[in-house]
Design goal:
Elements (H helix, E strand, L loop, with lengths): L6 H14 L7 H10 L21 H10 L11 H14 L2 H13 L4 E4 L15 E4 L5 E7 L10 E7 L10 E7 L5 E6 L8 E11 L4 E2 L5 H17 L8 H12 L6 H28 L7 H24 L24 H7 L10 H12 L20
Parallel strand pairs: 1-4
Antiparallel strand pairs: 2-3, 3-7, 4-5, 5-8, 6-7
Helix pairs in contact: 1-3, 2-5, 4-5, 4-6, 6-9, 7-9, 8-9, 9-10, 9-11
């Protein structure tokens, strides 16, 4: 297969899949595996890795045909880190063996992934991370350190991990990128209870964790470059998800506005109109960004989408609480639990208001993303740095 494929051919291949594996009589996992093997998982990936070497723009053709036929999806919200971050990084930097081993079970949802990047002393300044990976005489890596704010760590089988392999060079140049088995000895996951009452995030302690060199992505010391692919894809997956007009949180508020006219005031009306327009602009900008992705990998523009996503979610959820008055102050359930995914639209207004506070932190803080947009999108002068040529071990901490 190649880029010469057109929509009609893709549609025909999808119909062949449905004929050979009718969704009504085929088990969910069997169907998803067959879809992957037919190259209809992500059509722009290479043949044999879930794709057809076809244009990315043809994926909606597949998705529409399968949705109309009632075919199961791979529960993308549950495996979002694997789909949006691990997969494109493995595709870009993994060996043939790594691609064959990890991409199929990742896409099918048999193996959940998490991200071991942020640390207590390296959140916004991720390159300052201190988790160490030291190579032993047998060639394996021994990892010691702590990671934090790790979504899905309590259910993940695999993790994408960055660790410091050379403390004697500047911080960006002494990092390597690994795939960590979360079931290995020395990996300890502890829940972090949040303002919502849930422990959706975790902290992860790594004590003498052994990682074979065969699970390293990219050259030793070049992990920051590999991580940039992960981070750019992360911001697109968070801020650039495809939603219909009036989808997401703005749709929830608009529905309440229409169904409960007694809650309306002139001031709330003006604010709702403004946020509705801004949400629609963000949605259309996201569509344009996805069209640009057809031509290649995501760039820094995704940071702008993630910025807009965080701000809008926080402002819309605040408006919703005010619109509901006393009812908006209620909170459904404060029971401690460890959910597998975030559900903004299926919960109450109080949950949305509290959970959205994290949107400006996760996936890159808004302050850092503003710098990225300023420097890499708008071309403004780079912020002065006094640690650029200083070895990591000599930095003040």
């Amino acid at each position: 297969m190649s880029a010469s494929l057109d929509a009609a051919q893709i549609r025909g291949l999808t119909q062949e899949l449905l004929a050979a594996h009718p969704p009504a009589t085929t088990g969910r996992t069997d169907f998803l595996e067959a879809r992957f093997d037919a190259g209809l998982a992500w059509v722009h990936y290479p043949v044999g890795l879930g794709g057809l070497d076809a244009p990315r723009s043809l994926q909606p053709v597949v998705d529409a045909e399968l949705a109309a036929a009632g075919a199961p999806d791979n529960d993308p919200r549950r495996i979002g880190i694997g789909l949006g971050m691990a997969a494109p990084t493995i595709l870009g930097f993994g060996t043939d063996e790594q691609k064959q081993r990890f991409l199929r079970p990742l896409w099918v949802g048999e193996e959940v992934w998490c991200q071991l990047f942020s640390e207590p002393g390296a959140g916004s300044d991720l390159a300052a991370l201190g988790t160490r990976a030291v190579r032993d005489d047998g060639g394996d890596w021994v990892v010691d350190g702590q990671k934090v704010w790790t979504s899905s760590a309590h259910v993940a089988r695999w993790a994408i991990l960055i660790a410091r392999t050379d403390p004697d060079v500047p911080k960006h140049r002494g990092i390597s990128y690994f795939i960590c088995d979360m079931t290995d000895p020395g990996v300890e996951v502890r829940p972090l209870r949040q303002i919502t009452g849930e422990a959706e995030f975790n902290e992860v302690f790594l004590t003498g964790v052994r990682i074979p060199d065969s699970r390293r992505l990219g050259p030793v010391g070049d992990g920051w470059k590999v991580a940039q692919t992960t981070l750019m894809n992360e911001r697109v997956s968070i801020g650039g998800a495809r939603i219909p007009r009036e989808g997401g949180m703005i749709g929830t508020v608009a529905k309440t506005w229409r169904e409960r006219p007694g809650l309306r005031t002139h001031d709330l009306h003006q604010r709702l109109l403004t946020l509705w327009v801004e949400a629609e602009v963000a949605r259309l900008t996201g569509e344009r960004l996805r069209q640009q992705l057809v031509a290649g990998q995501p760039g820094p523009e995704g940071s702008g989408m993630k910025l807009a996503f965080a701000r809008l979610n926080q402002e819309i959820s605040g408006l919703e609480v005010e619109l509901l008055g006393d009812e908006g102050l209620l909170y459904g359930d404060w029971t401690m639990c460890r959910p597998e995914l975030v559900d903004f639209t299926g919960r109450d207004a109080g949950y949305r208001y509290l959970r959205s506070k994290g949107n400006s932190i996760e996936g890159g803080t808004s302050e850092i993303l503003l710098n990225i947009v300023a420097e890499r999108v708008l071309g403004l002068p780079v912020e002065p740095r006094n640690d650029k040529d200083v070895a990591w071990k000599d930095l003040a901490r």
